[in-house]
């Protein structure tokens, strides 16, 4: 059972190559995935080599190799990769076809280096002009515009064979606080959320998105007691109202929005018991600490084998769909697939009048 438990965790790593400690933890505990940031990146070839090393630790199916590759100010891999404009800039061309093509470009470049999960698209609506945390990461300022491009983005990811993730449910667009530092509050009724914030997520589910990310938000109309990450009612909305049956992932569990009030382990267990399938940590130390706490909870019966299995089955189904035909990246091929003149010409269409 503990072998399955590790699949419910995504860990960060400290540098541009795995430490012996990180290798041992990922392999011994059968950790489900690794998330990569700019501090893990030097070049496309180095990234591919790092991913090959991570995947050599797999038990059965490969690990999720995740990153945030949205374009604009949220692009972890820059040098050597095509520089992607912000999605708000992309949509100024009013061309879902161009958005689809840029999505394919992004996905193909990531996949050529072994990254198989892009934590996007952003389904938040840029309704609050003072909201700097979302801002130009959004596809637009109303639900219809965002929905139109969300669908194109997911299709681009899927035709390339990369996993997609609709974020940040139930909608981070009309907030002021950044959950990296402080808990954002959404003061909207459930009907207001249905009429606006939920619409792009409904579209994403209809477009067969692979994951939905639960945000660290306080929304009293959903749950007066718990933030969404810890709210069974919030997960129930995704499952019952949006009819989404695949993987629900948390946002980074080290954000200050949740890490100030609970220990890492308590927060992990609370999120899993509320309904999360997959929990994410930007650092290895935090992931290991949370994992050990949850493992103790399984051994004590506080988190049951049945609860682990239901989450593991959803993760396994996704891995079977995307990662069954895994083979290591052939590193000499990488340079010819990333940052090409053809890709650069495509993104330059965004800035042309």
UniProtKB/TrEMBL annotation:
SUPFAM superfamilies: (Trans)glycosidases (SSF51445). Its EC number is 3.2.1.52. InterPro entries: GH (IPR017853), Glyco_hydro_3_N (IPR001764), Glyco_hydro_3_N_sf (IPR036962), NagZ_Beta-hexosaminidase (IPR050226). GO terms for molecular function: beta-N-acetylhexosaminidase activity. It comes from the Bacteria. Residues 4-318 form the Glycoside hydrolase family 3 N-terminal domain. Keywords: Glycosidase, Hydrolase. The keyword Hydrolase applies. It is an enzyme of class 3 (hydrolase). The keyword Hydrolase applies. PANTHER family: BETA-HEXOSAMINIDASE-RELATED, GLYCOSIDE HYDROLASE FAMILY 3 DOMAIN PROTEIN. Belongs to the glycosyl hydrolase 3 family. NCBIfam families: PRK05337.1. This is Beta-N-acetylhexosaminidase. It comes from Halobacteriovorax vibrionivorans. The gene is nagZ.
């Amino acid at each position: 059972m503990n072998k399955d438990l590790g699949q419910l965790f995504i860990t960060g790593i400290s540098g541009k190559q795995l430490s012996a400690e990180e290798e041992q933890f990922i392999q011994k505990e059968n950790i489900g995935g690794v998330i990569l940031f700019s501090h893990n990146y030097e070049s496309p070839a180095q990234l591919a080599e790092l991913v090959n090393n991570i995947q050599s630790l797999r038990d059965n199916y490969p690990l999720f190799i995740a990153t945030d590759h949205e374009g604009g100010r949220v692009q972890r891999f820059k040098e050597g990769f095509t520089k992607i404009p912000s999605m708000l800039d992309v949509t100024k061309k009013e061309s879902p076809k161009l958005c689809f093509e840029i999505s394919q470009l992004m996905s193909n470049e990531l996949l050529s280096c072994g990254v198989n999960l892009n934590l996007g698209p952003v389904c938040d609506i840029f309704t609050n002009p003072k909201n700097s945390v979302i801002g130009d990461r959004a596809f637009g300022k109303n639900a219809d515009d965002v929905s139109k491009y969300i669908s194109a983005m997911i299709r681009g990811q899927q035709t390339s064979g990369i996993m997609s993730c609709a974020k940040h449910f139930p909608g981070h667009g009309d907030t002021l606080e950044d959950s990296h530092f402080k808990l954002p509050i959404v003061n909207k009724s459930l009907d207001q959320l249905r009429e606006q914030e939920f619409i792009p997520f409904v579209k994403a589910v209809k477009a067969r998105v692979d994951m939905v990310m639960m945000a660290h938000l306080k929304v009293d109309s959903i749950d007066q007691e718990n933030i969404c990450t810890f709210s069974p009612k919030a997960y129930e909305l995704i499952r019952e109202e949006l009819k989404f049956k695949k993987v629900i992932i948390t946002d980074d569990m080290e954000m200050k929005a949740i890490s100030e009030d609970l220990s890492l382990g308590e927060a992990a267990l609370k999120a899993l018991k509320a309904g999360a399938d997959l929990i994410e940590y930007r650092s290895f130390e935090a992931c290991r600490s949370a994992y050990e706490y949850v493992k103790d909870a399984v051994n004590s019966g506080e988190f049951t084998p049945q609860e682990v299995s239901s989450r593991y089955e959803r993760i396994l189904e996704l891995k079977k769909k995307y990662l069954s035909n895994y083979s290591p990246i052939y590193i000499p091929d990488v340079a010819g697939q990333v940052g090409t003149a053809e890709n650069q010409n495509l993104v330059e269409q965004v800035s042309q009048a």
